[in-house]
């Protein structure tokens, strides 16, 4: 598998888990310099400050077996193949074996650092080496490749010394050079195999890279140049998300990733989009394996020179208790007023570059309804809010006309309900706004309006011509307004759902360990979504994406404001459990080996450990 030509630069919480799914994620919690540094990724002191992102990978075989046990049979097979591809690309292609050549001396984890693309220039190739530094120039980079730096901590110095005596791969000879007193051994690129550059930094680290210039930069960091460990906010962020036994740590360097995106992306990223990222200094995350899936706790923080701050609106959310247990998707926040103002200001500062322009949304709403978001809605929406998609229930559907009965009898044709909930700070003003909306719907769009009583609470319904669309509105306890695109949802919501979303095991699994006072949730029930697909709101996914979604039970994300300049993210991916993993696929040049029965005993021990989680 060739190395990617362009690095994945715009990493988010989601892409952190994509990295895991591709076979490059894990954890190392003990660094070797100072009490604060022990929370940093392995080798942070020798990773250059220009790194775009890092992933620290566990060397515990038992932990990897636990990870490989998640998913369906198809996704397990794909994941194992990805791991085998990485193994073959980095080790087997150069004649090395992890168990034989690396495991006897390496520490608890290794770190993979993605570096900016190196494009050698004519000036670089002609420049003489600095005095007392490089005796011979580093070999040229593989043009267009994304440099990769791997940092391996030395746990057994004597065993590591044997690495220097390993023979060269067939047909290759190690070339040695000196850089700042460090001996660097290198192999030139050949065919699809990248160049290889390796060095030992004292008795602490072995570094391996695909570019000689990357190795030189790591030596510079080792000799005192600015490293990842020195970047603003990195140490405090990792210390705040320290977990007892995390499986992985990830880091994204905001300024470096933004710069590389601006200069290397093809096609070019619009400057307006890049401007939205200028305030962010970095993201740090710690990932743990649990019995039901993967948990990520992360911190994102602003640059010291940023004028932006986060408004402290953490609240004890109550809306999940008002939504029914068959809610498929839910996004909530602590204050709609603050959310809208921040979204509007950020969009305008980026020259209007936004997936959904707030100005266009405001103009569209005013054209359709005559209501202005700023003057008619925001004044009474300074409270918790949520948007939810609720699975259709065939038993709750209204009786259809005879000619449509056959179509509606098919569960795939039942529409999910869509509901908006807002905890209002001015109920009287909210009711006046609803009256104005009702006047527009009846006079301009010929909706039929009716009022009835549901569990002792008044509910208003607007039905479009030919009964194609029904809007319902009413009030929940605590001055919480709901507006639903559904005829039957009010009967579920009032006086309260028989079983709420907050009571479901999936919601509790994906959100329970997040702070109770938070800035909002995002919840996705993948099992329910897969069962309800085929409707207008839930279109079919491509087959390859369907395979991935069937391996995921649900996703929960909770955001919490930590001071005025940092955000905490608690993300949980609940996964299916598959069969016990066997041996990884053999290298293409090797004969298949029978599975080791010893793995089964270890897997059984891992299963017992999972049940105890």
Give me some keywords for this one:
613 residues, 20-stranded antiparallel sheet, two-stranded antiparallel ribbon, elongated, 22 strands, alpha+beta
Can you walk through the features of this model?
- It is elongated, with a radius of gyration of 28 Å.
- By secondary structure, it is of the alpha+beta class.
- The two termini are 36 Å apart.
- The model is unreliable at 1-33, 121-144, 401-412 and 590-605 (pLDDT under 50).
- α2 (61-68) packs across α20.
- The protein has a 20-stranded antiparallel beta sheet, sandwiched between helices. It has a two-stranded antiparallel ribbon with strand order 11-19.
Please count the beta strands (DSSP E, at least 2 residues each).
22
Given the structure, what is the number of helices? 20
Give Rg in angstroms: 28 Å
- Percent in helix: 25-40%
Average the pLDDT over all residues and give the rounded result: 81
* N-to-C span: 36 Å
Q: Name the overall outline.
A: elongated
Profile the largest sheet.
20 strands, antiparallel
Binned strand content: 15-25%
Low-confidence stretches: 1-33, 121-144, 401-412, 590-605
Q: Helix/strand/pairing class, anyone?
A: alpha+beta
């Amino acid at each position: 598998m060739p190395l990617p030509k362009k690095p994945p630069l715009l990493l988010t919480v989601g892409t952190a888990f994509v990295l895991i799914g591709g076979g490059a994620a894990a954890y190392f919690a003990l660094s070797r310099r100072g009490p604060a540094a022990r929370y940093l990724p392995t080798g942070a002191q020798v990773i250059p400050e220009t790194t775009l992102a890092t992933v620290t990978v566990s060397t515990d075989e038992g932990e990897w077996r636990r990870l490989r046990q998640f998913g369906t049979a198809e996704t397990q097979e794909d994941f194992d193949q990805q791991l085998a591809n990485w193994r073959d690309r980095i080790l087997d292609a150069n004649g090395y074996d992890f168990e034989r050549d690396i495991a006897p001396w390496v520490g608890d984890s290794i770190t993979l650092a993605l570096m900016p693309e190196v494009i050698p220039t004519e000036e670089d190739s002609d420049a003489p080496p600095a005095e007392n530094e490089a005796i011979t120039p580093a070999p040229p980079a593989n043009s267009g490749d994304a440099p990769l730096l791997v940092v391996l901590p030395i746990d057994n110095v004597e065993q590591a010394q044997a690495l220097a005596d390993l023979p060269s791969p067939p047909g290759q000879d190690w070339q040695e050079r000196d850089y700042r007193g460090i001996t660097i051994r290198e192999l030139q690129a050949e065919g699809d195999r990248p160049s290889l550059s390796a060095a030992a930094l004292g008795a602490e680290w072995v570094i391996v890279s695909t570019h000689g210039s990357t190795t030189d930069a790591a030596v510079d960091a080792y000799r005192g140049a600015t490293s990842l460990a020195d970047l603003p906010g990195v140490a405090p962020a990792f210390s705040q998300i320290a977990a007892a036994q995390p499986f992985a740590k990830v880091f994204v360097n905001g300024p470096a990733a933004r710069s590389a995106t601006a200069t290397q992306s093809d096609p070019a990223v619009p400057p307006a989009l890049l401007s939205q990222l200028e305030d962010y200094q970095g993201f740090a995350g710690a990932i743990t394996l649990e019995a039901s899936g993967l948990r990520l706790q992360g911190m994102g923080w602003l640059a010291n020179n940023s004028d932006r701050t986060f408004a402290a609106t953490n609240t004890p959310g109550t809306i999940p208790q008002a939504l029914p247990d068959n809610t498929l998707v839910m996004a909530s926040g602590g204050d709609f007023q603050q959310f809208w103002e921040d979204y509007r200001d950020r969009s305008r500062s980026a020259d209007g570059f936004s997936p959904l322009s707030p100005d266009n949304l405001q103009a569209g709403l005013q054209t359709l309804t005559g209501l202005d978001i700023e003057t008619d809605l925001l004044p009474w929406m300074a409270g918790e809010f949520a948007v939810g998609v609720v699975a259709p229930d065939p038993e709750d559907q209204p009786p259809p006309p005879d000619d449509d009965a056959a179509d509606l009898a098919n569960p795939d044709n039942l529409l999910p309900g869509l509901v908006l909930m807002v905890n209002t700070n001015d109920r009287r003003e909210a009711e006046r706004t609803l009256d104005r909306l009702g006047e527009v719907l009846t006079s301009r769009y010929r909706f039929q309006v009716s009022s009835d009583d549901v569990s002792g609470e008044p509910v208003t319904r607007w039905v479009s011509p030919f009964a194609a669309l029904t809007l319902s509105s009413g009030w929940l306890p605590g001055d919480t307004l709901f507006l639903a695109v559904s005829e039957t949802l009010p009967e579920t919501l009032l006086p309260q759902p028989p079983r709420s979303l907050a009571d479901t095991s999936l919601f509790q699994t994906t959100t329970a360990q997040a702070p109770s006072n938070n800035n909002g949730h995002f919840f996705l029930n993948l099992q329910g979504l897969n069962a309800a697909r085929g409707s207008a709101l839930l279109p079919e996914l491509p087959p390859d994406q369907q395979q991935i979604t069937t391996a995921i039970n649900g996703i929960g994300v909770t955001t919490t404001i930590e001071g005025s300049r940092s955000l905490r993210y608690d993300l949980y991916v609940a996964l299916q459990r598959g069969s016990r993993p066997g041996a990884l696929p053999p290298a293409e040049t090797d004969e298949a080996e029978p599975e080791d029965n010893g793995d089964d005993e270890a897997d059984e021990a891992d299963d017992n450990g999972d049940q105890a989680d």
